[in-house]
Specification:
Blueprint lengths: L3 H7 L3 H22 L1 H12 L2 H25 L3 H18 L6 H26 L12 H14 L1 H4 L8 H19 L3 H19 L10 H26 L6 H7 L1
Length: 258
């Protein structure tokens, strides 16, 4: 399923699809800031008591920061700066919306950060390609560890999906999901495990986060929509793993040396 033929056919398109999925939650949230300007401003003002001016500045920063970052990533310009900017947005929202104390949302935000780390690693390798032909000792360590960190953070997303009940389906899902998470984290059979997680996560996302079935005026519509696009971003990170491989710090790489 994830053999050489599949990768050869999708090699040209996979990184583009991965980047689009990865930035989808920032794109959706940036647009949300525009359409819900008043509600978002009032929420920040009420929560922090910071006044309309600071609350408006927060919403504006979120709107411009996320949309600008998305445009730069998709156009392949200043990708590293865009990633750092989006890291900043994640940190800002984690504090502003008190996500730090909600374990599920915190783990999902960390998984999102993992996707950005992989994007940063990809942009570093593209930057180094201009020196093709110049002898180097090994692939740069920062990039290897970024890929390792990205993989480990991505699997946090799946820990939020584990269900602790006694039904056969839940137990099976937990066992298979945990096994795949471990494979991606340690970098063993990485591309196959990551692609399997992509298929599984996409199916769960469409089934559980079907925001289009809920009327727009209901709060659940926005909640599911946010969840849906955040999950799509993690799928984008996993697709980057499929496209780029696990990197130097992985079992797959070590096998080549044995």
């Amino acid at each position: 399923f994830c053999g050489p033929q599949f990768l050869r056919v999708t090699k040209q398109y996979l990184p583009h699809v991965a980047r689009l999925c990865l930035i989808s939650t920032f794109l959706e949230d940036g647009v949300r800031m525009w359409f819900q300007w008043g509600e978002q401003r009032d929420y920040i003002d009420t929560t922090w008591g910071c006044g309309y001016a600071l609350a408006s500045a927060f919403v504006l920063l979120n709107l411009l920061g996320q949309l600008t970052g998305c445009i730069l990533v998709l156009s392949r310009n200043f990708v590293q700066y865009a990633c750092f900017g989006l890291f900043g947005i994640i940190a800002l929202q984690t504090i502003a919306y008190s996500i730090l104390w909600d374990l599920k949302f915190l783990m999902r935000n960390l998984a999102l950060g993992g996707g950005l780390l992989l994007l940063l690693a990809e942009s570093r390798s593209e930057g180094k390609s201009m020196f093709a032909g110049v002898p180097t000792m090994r692939e740069s360590s920062p990039k290897q560890y970024m890929q390792l960190g990205g993989r480990v953070l991505l699997v946090l997303m799946f820990m939020t999906l584990l269900h602790f009940d006694a039904s056969f389906f839940s137990i099976l899902q937990n066992i298979v999901g945990t096994a795949l998470m471990i494979l991606v984290a340690i970098g063993f059979k990485t591309k196959l495990a990551a692609l399997t997680l992509v298929v599984w996560l996409f199916a769960i996302n469409v089934y559980f986060n079907a925001f289009w079935t809920i009327p727009v005026y209901k709060p659940m519509h926005d909640f599911l929509k946010y969840d849906f696009f955040q999950t799509m971003s993690v799928i984008g990170g996993l697709l980057l793993v499929v496209a780029l491989g696990p990197g130097g710090v992985s079992m797959d790489e070590k096998k080549k040396e044995w």
